[in-house]
Amino acid sequence: MIADAVREELARRRMSRQALADRARISISTLEKALAGSRPFTLATTVRLEEALGKKLRGRAPDTTARSPAAAGFAPPELGSYSRPGMAWIEGAYLTLRPSFGDPAAIYAYRTDIAWSDESSRMVFREGERLDAAFTQFGEVSAPHQSGHIYLVTNRHGQHRLVVLSRPTIEGSLYGVLLTLQSGRGSQLAPVATAIAMIPLKRGETAPAGRITRGDPSYERCRRELDRVKADGFAVLL
């Protein structure tokens, strides 16, 4: 299939879909819809892609070897159809910061690990080092090319929790918004949205965890990182 051939070339060359669309002089919307199977590859589009890639896409012998999604190295369409090489930059451990729900002046810190899952053929995340371990979240990473944003999605029996993150900074940091449920009195749960920052951790680096209050040695650094969400326009909180 032409779509498989294009994805293979994108992964091999570590080229973005936008870059290919620009080189082939077609719209990114046309390329995305064709790769997703919602519209066919026209002859004109196919010819332009072949010229851009310097490779013939038509008349390829079908691959009769059964391949699992993991062997293909692509996430499913509902997560953005990204390739493992194309998302390798996001793998690693992050210091995750958000305001403390119990003390507005404090910051809550924990660890988030992101890695590729061969079993499910997608990037997955898992939180760790949380004081409230019972609320530890884990799920999958969505990365649609259209917006360029990253989504950390938790879905447990239909109950969702979502983190929307910006494109990474030059340091690899991610900033955005967390949408979740806050535990109130008794069994009451209330929707809440708040700023969140994810700072890459170096190998072996020990990061602060738990509630960080004024006077803590790491407080000012963590406060600066969290304040960047609004100050630098990574998210708008109305």
Automatic annotation (TrEMBL):
Transmembrane stretches, start-end: none
Ranges for domain HTH cro/C1-type: 5-60
Name of the protein in its database record: Helix-turn-helix transcriptional regulator
Species this protein is from: Chelatococcus sambhunathii
Organism classification: Bacteria, Pseudomonadati, Pseudomonadota, Alphaproteobacteria, Hyphomicrobiales
